[in-house]
Amino acid sequence: MTPALSILAAAPHSAPVTDWAGRIAWVAGLLVFVVFVYWLMRQGWKWRGTLQGDLPELPTAPADAGEPQLTLSGRYHGSTTAGQWLDRIVARGLGTRSRAELTLTEQGLDVVRPGATDFFVPAAALRGARLDKGIAGKVLTEGGLLIVTWEHGGRQIDSGFRSDRAETHPAWVGAVNRLSTTEHTTSTTEHTETEGAR
Q1: CA-CA-CA-CA torsion sign (115, 120, 126, 128)
Q2: Would you kindly state where each structural domain of the chain is located, as residue ranges?
Q3: pLDDT tens digit string along 50-98?
Q4: Which pTM value belongs to this model?
Q5: pLDDT greater than 50 at residue 195
Q6: Dist. CA 35–CA 174, nearest whole Å
Q7: CA angle centred on 75, ends 111 and 127, rounded to 5°
Q8: Per the count of CB atoms within 10 A, which of 2, 6, 115, 179 is most buried?
């Protein structure tokens, strides 16, 4: 190595200068973008709620709902238009995820949700139940969700629940389907007898 190169190699080098202004501007821009996206999501949620404003108030449980057939502790994951698992329903608090305590009786399905709106599905409004893997915003393993289909305000609704003990889901499917079939048969018979008497 020549003396000149040795002198250059031994000379102290200045540390690279950090462009703090550029970094701060980048972080600020990212934060503004995140806030904007959140605001758009919130506006979309409000807009969807407005469109669904014709949904009537949710029924509440009767004073005497009868003896429990089944109970379940778990989570409520949301509701959608029946058969359309991405068409979320947010009106009347149905869009709020929460813990849930379910009780099935001959009168219907009582859904108690700490911190959210409770509701009751009369037996006559039940349309069936099935196991599925997803509902708007939530996807689980096959059969990981209990989907209860019911009717309210002329609208068919799928509501998704997951028990803390998923092995109880099949029993719920069977019980809800039996109750909904019994109620449907009874209603049809009563309607037929009424029409025949006229």
Answers
A1: positive
A2: 21-51, 70-197
A3: 556 689 999 999 988 889 999 999 999 999 999 998 889 999 999 999 9
A4: 0.71
A5: no
A6: 45
A7: 50
A8: 179
